[in-house]
Amino acid sequence: MQGFEIAGEHDFGFDKTLSWQLATYENEFRYGDKPNSEDNSYFVARFDQKEVGYVGLEDRDTGKNYAYNQVDGGSDPWNAISNHFPSGFTLDPSKMGLSWVELYKVYVNEKDRLVANADFDWQYNNQLAVKFGAKYRDKVRKADFADEFYAWDSEQYGAAPTLADFTLSDQPGRSDYLSEAKFDYRTQLSQVASTEALAQFWTQNRNKFKLDTGESALISNGGALGRNFDVEETHTSFYGMATYQASDNWEVLGGLRVTRTDTEVSGYTYLADEDKVVDTTNSNDYWSILPALHVTYRANDDTNYRLALTRTFARPDFGSLTPGATYLEQDNQLNSGNPALDPTYSNNLDLMVEHYFDRVGLVSAGVFYKDIQDPIFQATSVGNYNNKQGVTIIRPENGDSAWLAGIELAFNRDLGFISDSLSNFGVMTNATFMDSEMQIPERTEKVAIPRQANELYNFTLYYDDTRFAARIALNHKGAYIEEHGGDSQSDSYYGANTSVDFTTSYQLNEQTLVYLELSNLTNEALQYYQGEQGRPLQVEYYGIRGMVSINYQF
After folding, report:
1. Inter-residue contact 145 to 104 (CB < 8 Å)
2. Mean pLDDT throughout 119-142?
């Protein structure tokens, strides 16, 4: 990541100021030198032990045997999914042959080639201040991606190596892997070879592997189109605003912003009928008119009432604009882009009252309503792709309309109002409760806005005497829809998550501060499920994370 900025500010008399800025930024992502500088990638070597004799799988006239959760009429509870190995089975490194080597290659370069803005402030008189200006941004994103699978060339070099041909050791976390789940997975794990040994083996024997184009995600076979694309986008904005102090109690702020967006996306599209990939370029340009009105009434020095009427918009993410798609074999999933996406606009109403205490602290309450046009959501369907059946196809789409409404509450205060002995203790808490609704194509019933939980709340209890400080915080986010399917049972959710964090610090002297941070004390699981919690797609545990630091100021 690198950047450069130059800015200036010029006064014209005591009431006029011109400020300006010119900047350029660049950031880049690529994997390091694993397994070597030529093949730098996320490097994976897979060893398989075949014909293990799974038990307890069911054939429901699909031609294949699967395990089913209880919610689908099977025997596995959602938090204790069996591996269905035979009783007494263990992985044997001497029977685990090298199936393939994967080179997962990613390169992303993003630039703000030019960011330029200028603002002019004019304090016209004691009651009226005006401000106007312009901003220009020229952005570009280039992305290259390939997921290459290489198989051992057994025709020329005989049987593939086995895991037993390498020096093995316990991988980190083997002894307590998924100990939170109600199934003993860790006893089935084999020891593993080190990444360094496998990388060295690959580099020395690369000529003994063949690229498996059928398994790989490449531009040539249409499997990596969704992440190989370039975007160029420019934003040109003009705005004007005025703040009018009508009296000691009333303040009115009004403004208008006009923005021009020009977007061009270049990528690749796979033509299934002709079995070929063609270059594709799409463009979109539009004007956005964004008015705003803010009114503040100060009832007294401690209490404010605020009203805001605004129109805002959000452009589609660059990743959503790709003309191609990427197929994920392990999930039988096709992630597609949509260069025809329109921006999302929202007309917003906000009302809030806030009261400040004599000592440090405040209490506030507010309501909000958003009327949304062209909301973007992830549409999910099941179809066929590149001779593969039952593929889950995920593609961003514009919905018809949506609304979001809710209330916000906050209370921050030390406890000195109860007793002077508690003045170093305090609480900080806030909560937001929401409801939302949107209409999307091919769904008769209305659905919730994606990534919008119905409740968010945080509660922090702290102690701070300027030398020693400690805080414990509870943070909660309710479940929310991530991707919409054809019906409610096909919707994909992130589960509700409640985490507990703790931080403390001690000022040893004027120069030295010792700091401790502990996160996720309850080891809360990250859950991703389809339709209902009993049908999990993904459950992850990250454990408690901690950091100890010393800050010394010279």
Report:
1. no
2. 96
Helix (H, G, I), strand (E, B) or coil at 191: coil
Tokens representing 404 are: 């979001």
SS3 state of residue 163: helix
Residue 402 and residue 437 in contact, taking contact as beta carbons nearer than 8 Å? yes
pLDDT > 80? residue 276: no
Question: 16: helix, coil or strand?
Answer: strand
Residues 6+ apart with CB under 8 A from 300: none
Of 275, 285, 228, nearest in space to 108 by CA: 228
Q: pLDDT, tens digit, for every residue of 168-196? A: 999 888 888 888 888 888 777 889 999 99
DSSP per position, 504-547: EEEE-SSSEEEEEEEE-TT-PPEEEEESSTTSEEEEE----EEE
* Cα 126 to Cα 15, 18, 253, 255, distances in angstroms: 10, 19, 15, 19
In the DSSP assignment, the letter for residue 69 is B
The values of phi and psi at residue 225, to 5°, are -75, -30
Q: Is the dihedral of CA 30, 34, 39, 45 positive or negative?
A: negative
Alpha carbon distances (Å) from 163 to 47, 158, 389: 7, 16, 33
Distance CA 229, CA 142 (A): 6
Residues of 366-386 as b/e, b for ≥16 C-beta within 10 angstroms?
bebebebbbbbbbbbeeeebe
Query: How far apart (Å, rounded) are the C-alpha atoms in residues 244 and 248?
Result: 11
Q: What letter does residue 205 receive in the DSSP assignment?
A: H
- Specify the DSSP element, H or E, that contains 280: strand 276-298
C-alpha separations of 296 from 243, 256, 291 in Å: 11, 18, 17
391, 383 contact by CB (below 8 A) = yes
Helix (H, G, I), strand (E, B) or coil at 496: coil
Q: Beta-carbon neighbour count of residue 431 at 10 Å?
A: 15
pLDDT tens per residue across span 398-432: 888 899 999 999 999 999 888 888 989 999 999 99
For residue 198, give the nearest of 329, 94, 42 by alpha carbon. 42
Q: Reduce the DSSP state of residue 299 to 3 states and report it.
A: coil
The structure's pTM equals 0.81
Phi and psi for 545 in degrees, rounded to 5?
Answer: -115, 140
End-to-end CA distance of the chain: 28
